[in-house]
């Protein structure tokens, strides 16, 4: 296991992938392997988020990204009556719209949120697409193409992460650990007359393994870095890759989830599309055995069933420290005993 690689991966949990001059989603030439090598080479630490490094060769065509972004924009443009039937605060709905905060939990603060969110389950496509809205026309078709392409990208990323972590098994994240239904937040932030009074999304860490975010062209995303909020400047056709809390736990804290938020702006509306790669609800999640060493790196977190995590996340309103606290091991137990519980697959 190369310590250097681990350190490189650990330095920041934010990467941006910019457009691919040489590859498109339809033409994976010269070969997927070469594209992966190129991705792997670019897994270097960002010196700071202010000078984010960009990873090229993500392989998702501009037509696929823009096609879905346009269809989603059309969706938000539909008359209120057409959208109202989807409005729901029921988390079990496969497709719904809601307004405002990230979780249903009220954290007692007085912040107002200007966000409409279209929340849906987007992968596996064949199983879920009949639940998506049939209007606007082509919405389903564009979403299906986007969801498949982003899922493939996530799969490649997870392999690279496993490789970068030095795992013998590069398929470590395959199967139940990343095989839950992929969720998608399509966030629409209207133009806001006074951004000092409203937020887009509160500060939070994403709950799952990995988020692949298309920001669009309008800035608004901010990430916490050394205690300060740094703007993540959008890049045309780029994805922001964001490690979630469960990645932080699986890697025993080596790849920390990034706290981020979205602010509103008075000049332009903004739309972002976040695809959240998640474990199966009944999957046991905990620090990967390959990450642990009884003496030097005992487990920092207990394992849990993914559905328990959802409850903790809601209760902590997405706050990184508060969520992690639910699962932290305060080392009164013998780490050797705890070790035996971790069986990820
Ligand atoms: O709008 C953004 O850039 C961030 C969205 C986000 O953090 C989320 O959907 O979890
Ligand atoms: Fe997020």
Automatic annotation (TrEMBL):
<dbReference type="InterPro" id="IPR027443">
    <property type="entry name" value="IPNS-like_sf"/>
</dbReference>
<dbReference type="GO" id="GO:0046872">
    <property type="term" value="F:metal ion binding"/>
</dbReference>
<dbReference type="InterPro" id="IPR044861">
    <property type="entry name" value="IPNS-like_FE2OG_OXY"/>
</dbReference>
<feature type="domain" description="Fe2OG dioxygenase">
    <location>
        <begin position="179"/>
        <end position="279"/>
    </location>
</feature>
<dbReference type="Pfam" id="PF14226">
    <property type="entry name" value="DIOX_N"/>
</dbReference>
<protein>
    <recommendedName>
        <fullName>Fe2OG dioxygenase domain-containing protein</fullName>
    </recommendedName>
</protein>
<keyword id="KW-0479">Metal-binding</keyword>
<dbReference type="InterPro" id="IPR026992">
    <property type="entry name" value="DIOX_N"/>
</dbReference>
<dbReference type="InterPro" id="IPR050295">
    <property type="entry name" value="Plant_2OG-oxidoreductases"/>
</dbReference>
<keyword id="KW-0560">Oxidoreductase</keyword>
<dbReference type="Pfam" id="PF03171">
    <property type="entry name" value="2OG-FeII_Oxy"/>
</dbReference>
<dbReference type="GO" id="GO:0016491">
    <property type="term" value="F:oxidoreductase activity"/>
</dbReference>
<keyword id="KW-0408">Iron</keyword>
<dbReference type="InterPro" id="IPR005123">
    <property type="entry name" value="Oxoglu/Fe-dep_dioxygenase_dom"/>
</dbReference>
<comment type="similarity">
    <text>Belongs to the iron/ascorbate-dependent oxidoreductase family.</text>
</comment>
